[in-house]
Automatic annotation (TrEMBL):
Database matches in NCBIfam families: panB, PRK00311.1
Entry GO MF terms: 3-methyl-2-oxobutanoate hydroxymethyltransferase activity
Keywords linked to the UniProt accession: Cytoplasm, Magnesium, Metal-binding, Pantothenate biosynthesis, Transferase
Organism lineage: Bacteria, Pseudomonadati, Pseudomonadota, Gammaproteobacteria, Enterobacterales
Protein name: 3-methyl-2-oxobutanoate hydroxymethyltransferase
Keyword rRNA processing belongs to the record: no
Amino acid sequence: MKPTTLADLSQLKKEKRKFATITAYDASFAHLFAEQGINVMLIGDSLGMTVQGFDSTLPVTVEDISYHTRNVRAGAPHSFLIADMPFMSYATPEQSFDNAAALMRSGANMVKIEGGDWLCDTVKMLTERAVPVCGHLGLTPQSVNVLGGYKVQGRDETSAQKLFNDAIALEKAGIQLLVLECVPTGLAQRVTEALEIPVIGIGAGNMTDGQILVMHDALGITARLPKFAKDFLKETGNVRDAVRLYIEQVESGIYPDQAHSFN
């Protein structure tokens, strides 16, 4: 099987073909996801809540992400893997070098960092050192204590313009993917159309280039599903069928619908 690359994702955007991605934390689920046709997976610091049982992502360490990245790579050798840089692992450009290198050595194809234009120098220096970077704007879970909770972002004109400006600045600095989390559909569409790089949404409507869900949400394992999430297992009764349905509904634009989006 041919490995999935950033060039493949860029081509999907050019062709206006939507793609589905999902979080993965172990070899078995990674293999199942790849087998059903999900070629991009995120080893998310969401594992702090879904796997480790914490109430936020903040306790997750680089060692945790490295461990789970190795597991996912073993199960999905040809998939494109994005590894989250955990809380305070990229507070300075110098810090980010060693931590990003550890994740790349564990099997990641790209690292993801949360934040706006203050990260431009870090993005530029990482890409110059052969580390592809995915940005993350909107609801950034590592900033939950600053944001005052898990709230939709960019609902007023000022914050929406700030997010848009951050997206433009990060692309100029060198990010090659962008995740938009919990933002109004119209804002997500505006960002997606302005950027040349693929934009992946989660709680950002169906106008982005791709979608991502935490696997536990997509399979209905989470005790309380977020508004934007859909339990695909409930509709199918079978994990493999649930994953295929998720892919089909993302690619067709059926999911997320208005009930799973913010206006």
